[in-house]
Write a structure and sequence with these properties.
The protein is 54% helix and 16% strand. It is of the alpha+beta class.
């Protein structure tokens, strides 16, 4: 009896609460608006919009990273080319400077030789004495010449005294000329003992025909400083050209050397080694600009080119390397291709992974949202079928339990 009374009391309480609730709803001026998802939320819910936005953000991030990596690769490959080319220029510069230094040493050896100084300073009355003195000087020069593998010839020229040369010397080429009016002789007098280089030219003192490069200086008496003649130490330009021909700068790149006035000292094509090319953009930049790198358009080949240069402190010569611009960036193009392939693979993996994750998240959310809408419309028989061990599984259990409790509560009220 006691438990029946208690049950009836509980039933009466629920009835009263239900009546009060109905009374409150009727007494309100405006009815309560049931919970509804917004159109945007419904759209996002049904289409997985939140996760699509996430995929779009990931794709945008991958594209940005790919572009940044590509730009960095391009800059890196350009800098790598510049560094490697500078190393090539410096290696060739050191090689040429070594030969130049060797020639300078021979020049100083001849200049400081007392026997040669005496023979050149002495006055001779007869042709025989003059010939003997010339032979003595030639023997001295021959000793130096025979001990060197880089020398092509050595000449001492003095129209007012004795002249000598090895291995052969033909002064008759200037019988009808005033040799002192020749450009090399006048420059030697102007420089007053300082040596200089004459670019590739025809050897007019040889019995044969050959191209030479000449290191020239005015010889002066050590005791009186009087001029004793002009010393010419000659080398074959092939010594430098062979070195330049072996230089590999990309597939179509090349290297050449010019002096401080733009005269070609040496380049792989020997036929153009006697030209002045100071007006060419890469040469003009090497001679005048502090920035030794330049991009220019070659009108002859109709190609965009890139050039970098270096200057020798010993000679003032400019070492210039030129390469097609597209070839300089060929390494970065390969890197960009690799980055593109990797980005596409990563993009595909991100899309697949994002879709899988999206489905694993949106499906239970949509199920629960639809179930909530059914409950909102008064259907308490709904049940979400989602079994998992994650948070959504726990949420589904809790939701199903809540609906079950509501169903039991309504049933008990009825």
């Amino acid at each position: 009896m006691h438990w029946r009374a208690e049950k009836e009391m509980n039933f009466s309480k629920i009835t009263k609460l239900s009546k009060r609730s109905k009374h409150k709803e009727v007494s309100k001026s405006k009815p309560k608006r049931p919970f509804k998802l917004s159109k945007e939320a419904k759209s996002d819910k049904s289409n997985g919009g939140f996760f699509k936005k996430g995929i779009q953000q990931k794709i945008a991030s991958l594209i940005f990273i790919g572009l940044a990596a590509s730009t960095r690769a391009q800059m890196g490959s350009k800098q790598q080319f510049i560094n490697s080319t500078k190393e090539i220029l410096n290696q060739n510069m050191n090689y040429v400077d070594f030969i130049v230094n060797t020639i300078n040493n021979y020049s100083m050896q001849i200049f400081s030789d007392t026997n040669i100084q005496e023979k050149l300073a002495e006055s001779y009355e007869g042709d025989y004495d003059k010939y003997r003195a010339s032979e003595d000087v030639r023997v001295k020069l021959s000793t130096i010449f025979m001990n060197s593998s880089v020398l092509e010839s050595i000449y001492i020229i003095n129209p007012d005294g004795i002249s000598a040369g090895v291995p052969s010397f033909n002064m008759s080429a200037f019988e009808d000329k005033n040799i002192k009016e020749e450009a090399f002789y006048k420059e030697a007098e102007e420089k007053a003992g300082k040596n200089f280089w004459v670019p590739t030219h025809q050897n007019e003192f040889s019995t044969g025909s050959s191209l030479i490069m000449s290191n020239v200086r005015l010889l002066r008496s050590v005791s009186t400083s009087e001029p004793l003649g002009v010393l010419m130490i000659n080398i074959n330009p092939d010594i430098f050209q062979k070195a330049l021909s072996s230089v590999q700068i990309g597939k179509e790149g090349y290297m050449f050397i010019v002096d401080g006035e733009g005269n070609v000292v040496c380049q792989p094509n020997a036929e153009t080694s006697s030209l002045n090319i100071k007006d060419r953009p890469e040469v003009k930049n090497a001679l005048e600009s502090e920035n030794k790198e330049i991009t220019f358009f070659d009108e002859t080949t109709k190609t965009k080119m890139f050039s970098i240069s270096a200057e020798s402190e010993k000679t003032g010569w400019r070492y210039i390397a030129v390469v097609p611009y597209k070839e300089m960036l060929s390494l970065s193009d390969k890197i960009k291709s690799i980055i593109l392939v990797i980005s596409l693979i990563c993009l595909l993996l991100v899309v697949i992974a994002s879709l899988l994750v999206s489905r694993s998240i949106t499906n239970p959310v949509i199920k629960i949202s639809n179930a909530m809408a059914s409950v909102e419309n008064g259907d308490l028989t709904v049940e979400v079928d989602h079994k998992s061990k994650d948070e959504f599984g726990e949420l589904t259990k809790t939701f199903n339990k809540m609906v079950k409790n509501l169903r039991q509560l309504v049933s008990s009220v009825k």
